[in-house]
Design goal:
Blueprint lengths: L2 H12 L10 E5 L4 H12 L6 E4 L14 H11 L7 E4 L5 H14 L6 E5 L5 H11 L4 E5 L15 H20 L10 H12 L9
Parallel strand pairs: 1-2, 1-4, 2-3, 4-5
Helix pairs in contact: 1-6, 1-7, 2-3, 4-5
Length: 212
């Protein structure tokens, strides 16, 4: 299989394809991809929730790239698309997915919001890991996970090149196993063909985002 075919196996595994229904809040997790914030904004403008919460400070992939925190950058993108700033809450202290969830929960509680249904927005290849982490840290709300509807072939950009995407994708699939073992997220089965594709990509040198 080609490298792109192997990467697509991992990509398809990490996506969940949830059909969305209305919720109490759209929780947008910060990342290096502003299209995530724009997708959250479009969901808000479709009327899927009355409130957006953008979460994230600066992480490994955004240090030196954004002028503001990930949360503020995504919130600005949402406002440009027409979301009222009054409908956006900011949580700009978290630096990983677990903190995103814990501190977003605290931010909502401080605003008097206790959601029973949440739409969680992330990158396409982070859907499954975001869901598994959320279910470990905050299992009570009904949860739907979504991402910008961009196929693997069209996802890379000059700012997010193909090799970076594959390296992060390989690292995130590894985290599905490692982080479940460490108690950071609920376990998820990894099909043999997915793990075989992961092993082959590691053998081809896509190791830049692995954890020890």
């Amino acid at each position: 299989m080609s490298t792109d075919e192997l990467a697509r196996v991992l990509w398809d595994y990490m996506r969940l394809g949830h059909a969305l229904t209305p919720a109490d809040v759209i929780l947008v997790l910060g990342s290096n991809d502003v299209r995530v914030g724009e997708h959250g904004a479009r969901l808000f403008l479709q009327g899927l929730a009355p409130l957006m919460l953008c979460s994230g400070n600066v992480g490994r992939l955004t240090a030196g790239r954004f002028e503001k925190s990930e949360a503020a950058t995504f919130a600005d993108a949402a406002v440009r698309l027409g979301v009222p700033r009054s409908a956006i809450l900011i949580e700009d202290t978290s630096t990983n997915t677990g903190e995103n969830i814990d501190r977003s929960r605290a931010r909502l509680e401080s605003a008097g919001v206790r959601p029973s249904r949440i739409i969680l927005v992330q990158k396409p290849y982070m859907e499954r890991r975001a869901w598994a982490t959320f279910k470990r840290r905050w299992p009570e709300p009904g949860l739907q996970v979504t991402s910008p509807p961009i196929p693997y072939e069209d996802y890379p950009t000059p700012q997010i090149p193909r090799d970076l995407v594959i390296n992060i994708l390989v690292g995130d699939v590894q985290r599905m196993r490692v982080y479940a073992e460490r108690g950071f997220q609920v376990p998820q089965p990894i099909p043999d063909e997915v793990w075989a594709a992961w092993e082959e990509l590691v053998a081809r040198g896509y190791t830049g985002h692995l954890v020890a």
